[in-house]
Design goal:
A 4-stranded antiparallel β-sheet has the order 1-2-3-4. It is of the alpha+beta class. The longest helix has 14 residues. The chain has one domain. Helices cover 25% and strands 29% of the residues. The termini are far apart. The chain is globular and about 40 Å long. Bound molecules: zinc ion.
Length: 102
C-alpha cells in the first residue's frame, strides 16, 4: 500500500498475526518508496516499525491494532512529516464514528 503525502510517497505495510493462543498482534512498517525487495518483509533500510499487541482479554480488532501500530511507527518523525503521514493514513482508513454523533 502506498501513502501519498506532500513529502513524497511512502510504503505502508500492515501485517496482522494471531499467535496460537488467539492473541492478536499488528505490525506496521513505513518507509519512503521504493521497497528494497518485492517480497514481504521488504527489508528496506531505515524503515519505521510499530507493533501493537492486543491484550489477552481484549478482542482483537484489526482497525485498532493498525492505528496503534501506525502511531508507534511514526512517533519519532518530525511533526510535519508525521502530520502528512497521518493525513494520508486517515484517508485510506477513515475513522469510524463511534462517539455517538452521526
Ligand atoms: Zn517496503
Amino acid at each position: 500500500m502506498i501513502l501519498d503525502t506532500e513529502f513524497g510517497k511512502f510504503a505502508l505495510h500492515i501485517m496482522h498475526q494471531r499467535d496460537p493462543n488467539g492473541h492478536g498482534h499488528s505490525e506496521v512498517t513505513v518507509h519512503p518508496l521504493p521497497c528494497a525487495r518485492s517480497e514481504r518483509p521488504c527489508c528496506t533500510p531505515n524503515q519505521l516499525v510499530g507493533v501493537a499487541k492486543c491484550h489477552e482479554r481484549d478482542q482483537f480488532c484489526r482497525a485498532v491494532g493498525r492505528k496503534l501500530a501506525f502511531e508507534r511507527a511514526v512517533t519519532l518523525l518530525d511533526n510535519e512529516t508525521r502530520a502528512a503521514l497521518w493525513k494520508a493514513f486517515l484517508l485510506r482508513f477513515p475513522p469510524r464514528k463511534s462517539n455517538g454523533t452521526k
